[in-house]
Design goal:
Elements (H helix, E strand, L loop, with lengths): L1 E5 L4 E5 L5 H6 L3 H9 L11 H10 L1 H6 L4 E6 L5 E5 L1
Antiparallel strand pairs: 1-2, 1-4, 3-4
Length: 87
């Protein structure tokens, strides 16, 4: 996955290997997971844990690899700011 951010003052290109998904999820603060759990409807809020999120994303890793190069996010602002996220 690649993240590109371009502004008047900054050009940033960040490659993120798909194999690092589990590692990145472990870095998410517990407070953030708790907020997600509070915003999830009642029968599903018990499923919002780091372990479940990591497991789901690791299961989807094959699909992510099949669609390599697919642009997920493409935003261009009027002031020239640009954001792109590609698989």
């Amino acid at each position: 996955m690649t993240v590109k951010i371009r502004t008047r003052d900054l050009r940033l290109h960040i490659p993120v290997p798909a194999a690092m998904i589990g590692f990145v999820i472990r870095l998410i603060p517990d407070k953030t997971i708790d907020k997600m759990r509070l915003n999830t409807p009642e029968p599903y809020n018990c499923l919002v844990t780091k372990d479940h999120i990591r497991m789901i994303l690791e299961e989807c890793l094959d699909v992510l690899k099949e669609n390599k190069g697919l642009e997920i996010v493409h935003v261009e602002a009027a002031d020239g700011t640009f954001l792109s996220v590609k698989l």
